[in-house]
Write a structure and sequence with these properties.
The protein is an alpha/beta fold. It folds into four domains: 52 residues, no CATH class; 154 residues, Spo0b-associated Gtp-binding Protein, Chain: A (Distorted Sandwich), CATH 2.70.210.12; 174 residues, Rossmann fold (3-Layer(aba) Sandwich); 93 residues, GMP Synthetase, Chain A, domain 3. Helix content is 17%, strand content 27%. It is built from nine helices and 24 strands. The strands form six sheets. It has a six-stranded mixed β-sheet with strand order 16-17-15-18-19-20, with helices on both faces. The radius of gyration is 32 Å and the shape is elongated.
Amino acid sequence: MHFRGLRITDDLELFCFLRYTRGTVGGRSFGLGLSALSMHGGNLRLWKLRRYEQMFLDFARIEIRSGKGGDGHVSFHREKFVPAGGPDGGDGGRGGDVILEVDTSMNTLFIYKHRYKFKAEDGAEGGKKRCHGKNGKDIVLMVPEGTILREETSGKVIADMSGKNHRQVILKGGKGGRGNMNFATPTNQAPQYAEPGKPALELRCTMELKLVAEVGLVGFPNAGKSTFLSRVTNADPKIASYPFTTIDPNLGVANLGDGRGFVIADMPGLIEGASDGVGLGFRFLRHIERTRVLIHIVDTASFDGRDPVEDIQKINAELEKYNPAIMKKPMLIAANKIDVLQCNDGDDPVARIRAEFEPQGFKVYPISAYAGTGLRELLEDVRKLLDTTAPEQVYYEQEYFPEDIIASSDLPYTVETEEGRDGEKVYVVEGPKIDRMLSYTNLDSEKGFVYFTQFLRRAGIIDELKKAGIKEGETVRMYGHVFDFYDDEAMSDESYK
C-alpha cells in the first residue's frame, strides 16, 4: 500500500499529526493535539490525542545548592633541561551560582511541583602547568513575575521578583582553592600542599506567587465573575451554575482599543469566614495585594437567597480582616444579573446598593455579564481610574541573606596583634570563619562592604577587637585586605535595613 509516495509495510507504523496548537487560555498554558492518523499493517486509524493542561500552582518548596569551589592542584614543572622547575599547580574553578530569573510567559509555579532539588555545577580542580580549573555552570531558575522567595524556617524574604528586579543571584558559588604555585616562598620553594575549594551553600526555600494584575475581581461564589472575565477578555475560564466553579485564579486582558488594555485577575469566590480558612480560605487573597483597582461583583438577582447588600458588607469585612491596605484601593461595585432581576413588592436591589455604598465612595454599575449590558461604561471608568491612580509598587525588601549561614556557623577565628612596618600596631583577624565569608562577599561594591561590616558586628568580631584595645583609625588586616577601624553605628543592622 502506498501513502503519499511512502510504502507502508506490515511492520511500519506511521503517525501523522493533523494539527498541534500551543498557547494560553484563561491564564493557563496548554498544548493540544487534536487528532492523529496511525497506519499499521495497512489499516488506517484516527486517534484523538489527550489534552495537556498545565495546572495553576502558586506555592512551592525547593532545595537549592550552589557549586563547590574546585580544589587547588599540587604539581611541579617537569621539562627537559629545566632543573628545579618549581611548583606549577593551578587554582581551582569557581562554583556555579544559583540565579532566579523572571520569565514573562509564565504564570504558574507548576514546573516546581515534581522537581524541587536544584544544584549548580561544582568548579573543577586546577591542573598542572598553572592551568586554572573550569568554572562551574550557573543554574538559572525561571519564575513568573511576582514570585517571592523566602527562607523556609524563618519565613524571611530572600528575593521579590517583581518591578525592576528580574534577575537576582540567590546563592553564590564557592571560590576555587589556590594551587601550590601560590605558596612558593624563598624558604619554602617546593610546597607540597594546595588550598581546597570553598564549600557550597545550601538552602531550603518556599516560593510564593502573587500575580501581577491591574484589576482584581472579588465577590461571593456564583456572582458571575468568570462570566464577566470571559465577556470582557479572551480568557476562557470554567463557567457553571454551582459555587466554587473557579478554584484557581484566571487572568485576562481587557482591550478597549487604541492599545488601552489592562490585565484583570478573576479570584476564586470568597465567603464569610474566608480570612479564618472557611471555604477556599484566604489562600488566593495574596494575588489581590498587587492590584490597583478592585471590581466587586455582586448577584442582584439573589438566586442563592442571599441579600446583595449583606454580601458586599461581608466580603469587604473579610478583605479588611485579611489586609486593611486592600480596602484603601479604589473599588467599583458591579451589580450583576440585572437581565434576570425581578423587583418584588417594589424592592429594587440596585437602588438599595446605591443608597448604602455610594455615600461611602463606591460607585455602583448595573450590569449583565451574560448579556453584555453596562460593561463598556464600567471598563471605561476602570481605565480612567488606572490613568489617574499612581501605580503602587508592592515590593518586599530582602530580609534574609544566605551568607548568614556562614555568620551563624561555629567556625573559629582569631584576633591577634603585630607590629607594622612603621612600628604601629596592626590587628590581624584570621580563621576559617573570616576566610569563608570573604570568599562569598564582593568588597568592591558598597552594599557588599556594608554587609561585611554587619557580619563582623553580628559575629562578635567588632567586640573582640574592642576587648583587644583597638582605637579609632588603627589598622585591621584580614587575609590581604587592610581596613582602618571606625566603630560606625550607622552601619548597624537596624539602620541599614
